[in-house]
Design goal:
The complex is a heterodimer of chains A (370) and B (326). Chain A is of the alpha/beta class. Chain A contains 12 helices and 12 strands. By secondary structure, chain B is of the alpha/beta class. Chain B has one domain: P-loop containing nucleotide triphosphate hydrolases (Rossmann fold, 3-Layer(aba) Sandwich), CATH 3.40.50.300. In chain B, the strands form 2 sheets. An 8-stranded mixed β-sheet of chain B has the order 7-8-9-4-10-11-13-12, sandwiched between helices. In chain B, strands 1, 2, 3, 5 and 6 form a 5-stranded antiparallel β-sheet that branches. Chain B is globular. Classes of the chains: A alpha/beta (370), B alpha/beta (326). The interface between A and B is large, with 46 and 44 residues.
Chain lengths: 370, 326
């Protein structure tokens, strides 16, 4: 085992996870032996450019990979002592949404357009309630029962006119209040299209957090939002994280967003995690040349003061079999070993790992290496 | 300094019909651009920043004569260009646009070389040899290999396509280039390449840019002057450095502090205190359109829409209580 994340506190550990997509043009390696751990009550941001595999990682964690074309080649996802990779789809249901919840980039396409937002949140609350009542096995029967959120008598009415029980309605309003939606008692009866983008994303957060999950995966949650709305939603997420005691895995392409909210950041490049570090360390002394390059790409002032140093070249084709470091073709510090053998993600300093021969293996700090 | 482009009280209203009856009376309008006056000086960059729906793209499209303004005047290169006072072909030659999404602004069935060459035949009326030479030169200037001219857009990456769009825009040797969100579809490392290229081209061909963006960092990097728009109104205008250092309109303050910065010691995002969301452009709030969200709002704000006032040389703010924000 080349590297183990901090075993003591990590409650979700990804070990050597490799995932590929089979396409007519060849096998695309989306994740290449990725190892990462998420700790309790931590906001871990995974940053990288499009196609680096960050969304594939998120989908693998919550068991929503499209199989086929996706294939898990090897690796484990250990969550509270259970390997999620080995679970059957029916068993995975017991975790998805309840213990691991997810919010997506485009809230309009993740909410059901023909149901009122209140009903959609109420459904989630009912499922949680039934689970607490001793329904451990989540099967179709269970799901059907859960959908009966209405009193039996009312269920003969058309769907649009059914009403929830008063107590469920109260709970739903409370969860809308939690995400600071103005006039929750009116919003509860609206359809998703009647809400603004920011409100929709808040509804998604309300729904996800109503389950009190141990892990919330947020895949580009604010990319479709305006900056002032983005600030509100991120602030809310950060506050609720402490309130509900959940960990967050934030997938983003925006380094600045990661920098603003994350506790720890993992940088991905072409299916590899190239660096993970505490947010302060990563932005003050980035170790991996890709992270350094990415940071010098950010416009952080006027053209009179700073000159951007773009990374030359472009991302490699993930269909080709690559030996050695995938960043070697663009790296200013490339050495002969870089094209021969792939560098492993090794601990360089405390809470700072990098996959590069510039440090790590050359200075012999094989922490946690058997 | 000489102005390359000036708009005087430019408005653009879109009528909205209720129902499907084509004869129904048009009652309401989307006030996309609601009386905006801007000036772009020769050889400089003006950034128009704002959130989605604030009218920045409509402003650009109106200036480029892609839609007719409802009222107001546009003076380009010393001449009014609205209502056919100037030959539109002359305007199209001197004023080019780079659109946000290179995917949809390049014809997927036309080879890159022909895409770049088309305005040179049509607008400039050049001969075939001259166009071929110009295509080669444009590709070199934007840093693309020559053989790309024979490829189709589908074979190119996003960054390459945006370079092609830039090459096509600078082909007719324009005086002003409108950049509508030129990098928002691109990754950080590609964005840096395009920004560097744009600066290089500006220097080489002494271009003026009008940059439309929602990204404050990009606007700060590329621009000399900045115009902040909110719901169809210009709320603040001035030199970029001054606005970034000391924004005065409450909305500009909120906008700049909402923009995430890559410095973990300056966590501005979690301190932001802004309520609500952008109002509808059909029924904007009366008076100052920002007043329902504004921490300084008083009764006058809901009655009277403030006009742009010069608070220091070249720095204009539209706010009744600009003294409080200073």
């Amino acid at each position: 085992m080349p590297w183990r994340p901090d075993e003591l506190s990590a409650f979700l550990t990804v070990q050597d996870l490799s995932i590929c997509y089979d396409s007519t043009a060849g096998k695309v390696t989306a994740l290449d032996n990725v190892s990462i751990g998420i700790q309790e009550n931590e906001l871990l941001a995974v940053v990288g450019e499009s196609g680096c595999g960050k969304s594939t990682l998120a989908l693998a964690l919550i068991g929503l990979l499209p199989v086929p074309p996706a294939r898990i080649l090897n690796g484990t996802i250990e969550f509270k002592g259970i390997d999620l990779v080995r679970l059957k789809p029916t068993e995975m249901r017991g975790y998805r949404g309840t213990q691991i919840a997810m919010i997506f980039q485009e809230p309009l396409s993740s909410l059901n357009p023909v149901y009122k937002v209140g009903d959609q949140i109420a459904e989630a609350i009912t499922i949680k309630r039934m689970r607490e009542d001793g329904h451990t096995q989540v099967d179709t029967d269970f799901m059907q029962k859960a959908h009966r959120v209405v009193p039996p008598k009312a269920s003969k009415l058309p769907r649009t006119r059914r009403r929830m029980t008063a107590d469920l309605r109260e709970k739903t309003i409370a969860s809308l209040k939690l995400v600071r939606i103005p006039d929750p008692d009116q919003v509860i009866d609206r359809y998703p299209f009647e809400l603004s983008g920011g409100m929709r994303q808040r509804v998604m957060i309300a729904m996800a957090l109503s389950q009190e999950p141990s892990l919330l995966i947020a895949d580009e949650p604010t990319t479709a939002l305006d900056v002032t709305t983005q600030a509100q939603v991120l602030k809310l997420m950060k506050e609720l994280m402490d309130k509900v005691k959940t960990s967050v895995l934030l997938i983003t392409h925006d380094l600045a967003v990661a920098c603003q909210v994350a506790d720890r950041v993992a940088v991905m490049y072409a299916g590899d995690i190239v660096e993970t570090a505490d947010v302060y360390d990563l932005f003050s002394k980035p170790l991996h040349p890709y992270t350094q390059g990415l940071l010098s790409c950010l416009p952080t002032g006027s053209k009179r003061k700073i000159t951007l140093k773009p990374i030359p070249g472009s991302v490699p084709d993930l269909r080709s079999q690559m030996i050695g470091c995938k960043y070697a073709t663009r790296c200013p510090y490339v050495m002969s070993i870089c094209t021969e053998k792939k560098p492993r993600l090794l601990s360089v300093q405390k809470n700072h790992e990098s996959a590069c021969y510039l440090h790590g293996e050359t200075n012999g700090s094989h922490t946690g290496n058997n | 300094m000489e102005a390359i482009l000036e708009t005087i009280d430019l408005t653009k209203y879109f009528p909205i019909q209720r129902g499907i009856n084509p004869f129904s009376k048009v009652k309401k309008f989307v006030r996309a651009v609601d009386g905006v006056s801007i000036t772009i000086w020769k050889g400089t960059t003006l950034a128009v920043v704002g959130e989605s729906g604030c009218g920045k793209t409509t402003l650009a499209r109106t200036i480029a004569l892609l839609t007719k303004p409802t009222s107001g005047d546009i003076i380009f290169n010393g001449k009014s260009i609205v209502n056919g006072k100037t030959d539109p072909r002359q305007v199209y030659r001197d004023l080019q646009i780079v659109f946000q999404d290179p995917e949809s602004s390049l014809d997927p069935n036309i080879k890159i070389g022909d895409s770049i060459g088309e305005p040179l035949y049509g607008l400039m009326g050049w001969s075939k040899e001259a166009v071929t030479r110009a295509i080669q030169k444009s590709l070199t200037v934007v840093g693309l290999p020559q053989d790309i001219a024979n490829r189709l857009p589908g074979q190119l990456s996003g960054g390459q396509k945006q370079r092609v769009a830039i090459a096509r825009a600078i082909g007719p040797q324009p005086k002003l280039v409108i950049l509508d969100e030129p990098t928002s579809a691109l990754d950080a490392s590609v964005q840096a390449q395009i920004l560097a290229l744009l600066l290089e081209l500006q220097k080489e061909f002494s271009l003026s840019y009008m940059l439309i963006t929602h990204n404050i960092a990009v606007a700060e990097y590329l621009s000399d002057f900045m115009e902040v728009m909110y719901s169809g109104d210009a709320v603040e205008y001035g030199p970029t450095e001054e606005i970034m250092a000391k924004p005065r309109h409450p909305y500009t303050i909120a906008l700049i502090s909402s923009a995430p910065i890559a410095n973990p010691w300056k966590r501005n995002l979690l301190q932001v205190d802004i309520r609500g969301e952008v109002p509808s452009a059909i029924n904007p709030p009366p008076g100052c359109k920002f007043h329902p969200r504004c921490p300084y709002a008083e009764s006058i704000c809901s009655q009277q829409n403030p006009k742009l006032r010069e608070i220091s040389p070249g720095h204009f703010v539209a706010c009744h209580f600009v003294d409080k924000t200073g």
